[in-house]
Amino acid sequence: MLLRLCSLFLQYPDSEITAARPVLGSHVEGLPPSPAAEQLAAFTAWFTAEETQALERHYVEMFDLRRKSSLHLTYYLHGDTRRRGMALLTLNQRYRAAGWDADSGELPDHLPVVLEFAALTGPGGGEAPLRQHRRGLELIQHALTDADSPYRHVLAALLTLLPPPTEADRAAVSRLAAEGPPNEEVGLDPYGTYEDGEFAPPGTFVPPMAAPPTRVPPADPTLTRVEGNR
Fold first, then answer.
1. Quick one: DSSP state of residue 104?
2. DSSP 3-state of 110
3. pLDDT for residue 210
4. CB 6 within 8 A of CB 130
5. In the chain, which residues have pLDDT < 50?
6. The pTM is what?
7. What's the half-sphere exposure (Cβ side, CA atoms, 13 Å) at 200?
8. Distance CA 215, CA 206 (A)
9. Residues 2-180, CATH architecture
10. I need a labelling partner for 18 at 20 to 30 A (CA). Which of 26, 143, 171, 212 fits?
11. What is the residue-wise DSSP string for 158-227?
12. Which sequence spans correspond to the domains of the chain?
């Protein structure tokens, strides 16, 4: 439920999403007490009070115009390099191996898509992409906090569901904030190798094992992902 709510809140706030605010708010109110529920309650208080146009402007400013709070997770690992294309392909393979077709019109690393996959597939494999991109999620949350954006509460709620960051994670996030994602280099091996100081852990691009196609229906029709049309 928490993952599905985070997925919906991080989508573009079009008319369909904003019309569903009362229903979403009631689901947040019904969550068991937890740090994540408190964070989502803080976000919902702002989200339900703002005018639709103000929500749209704020969303575009935070997620479309600022690289440090982009919702495309592979950007933080690979920047605009050829390795990012391989990472996107691997993520798509993971979805297909689980029998899930995002069919969203978004890239497979778009955070709302990754969150919906985790919500539908469950712990373990479903949440693996979130754990893999934890450092990017930390950077997004820091950027939203620096901008005093209420969306920081959604990222804070999500991070409470993941294992605590390690010292290596904290150091990598600080370095990433200071230096930015990697840039394409002339003569870069198109298949890529891992060197000291890079953010991608070994085994990042290992394709997942295939599984029989399955589809998991959403538990509540009101929480089915709504794709924003910009």
1. S
2. strand
3. 43
4. no
5. 184-217, 225-230
6. 0.77
7. 22
8. 23
9. Orthogonal Bundle (1.10)
10. 143
11. HHHTSPPPPHHHHHHHHHHHHH-SPPP-TT--TT----TT-SSPTTTTPPPPP--------S-GGGS---
12. 2-180
